[in-house]
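User: Just a sanity check before I run the rest of the batch. Below are the structure tokens for the first item. I only need the designed sequence back.
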């Protein structure tokens, strides 16, 4: 039996990250910095000696490109890849495309902070983090976790909030704790799981 390895990586910087815009399900591409972050993620994983069996990503190209670039940097571009909207970023609804500073001026700091960092408050027309968990977690349990528990090494390239949904469960965090967690772009989080799906170890591959 191989080690049960699950690696999570948030996509590299996107064009709208750079412009400080609410992105959500808008299909925005990576910046040059985002491409470099994806390449660095692959190089860090290659240095760890991990050979992936399968990759999962969202329906959005910033995550798909991050996965493709990281795997290419590892020399593993040929592995099967599964794309599914269940791993998409949280949908920010009416805020999509709006500059975060403009939103604060329009609705006030406290209201925008609630929309961005509360667990169960939805922005207008959008999803709360709880809604994102309800979409992402069942997909993880049904489609991704079985590969890991079979002893495969799995790479998931997704988004800040869809990955928060997974980290919340893996790390046993409360709703209050998970909304405060920042997940950096292009920084792999390496989990090794026990046979019962609990976490044996966790390592964040920074710089």
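Assistant: Here's the designed sequence for the first item:
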């Amino acid at each position: 039996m191989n080690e049960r390895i699950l690696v999570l990586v948030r996509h590299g910087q996107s064009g709208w990250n750079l412009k400080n815009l609410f992105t959500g399900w808008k299909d925005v591409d990576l910046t040059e910095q985002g491409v470099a972050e994806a390449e660095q993620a692959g190089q860090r994983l290659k240095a760890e000696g991990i050979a992936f069996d399968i990759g999962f990503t969202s329906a959005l190209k910033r995550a798909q490109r991050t996965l493709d670039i990281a795997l290419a940097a590892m020399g593993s571009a040929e592995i099967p890849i599964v794309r599914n909207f269940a791993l998409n970023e949280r949908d920010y609804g009416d805020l999509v495309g709006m500059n975060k500073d403009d939103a604060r001026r329009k609705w006030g700091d406290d209201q925008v902070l609630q929309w961005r960092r509360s667990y169960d408050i939805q922005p207008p027309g959008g999803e709360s983090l709880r809604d994102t968990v309800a979409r992402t977690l069942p997909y993880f349990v049904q489609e991704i976790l079985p590969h890991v528990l079979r002893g495969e090494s799995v790479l998931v390239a997704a988004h800040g909030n869809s990955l928060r949904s997974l980290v919340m469960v893996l790390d046993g965090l409360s709703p209050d704790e998970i909304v405060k967690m920042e997940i950096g772009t292009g920084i792999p989080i390496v989990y090794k799981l026990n046979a019962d799906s609990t976490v044996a170890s966790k390592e964040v591959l920074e710089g």
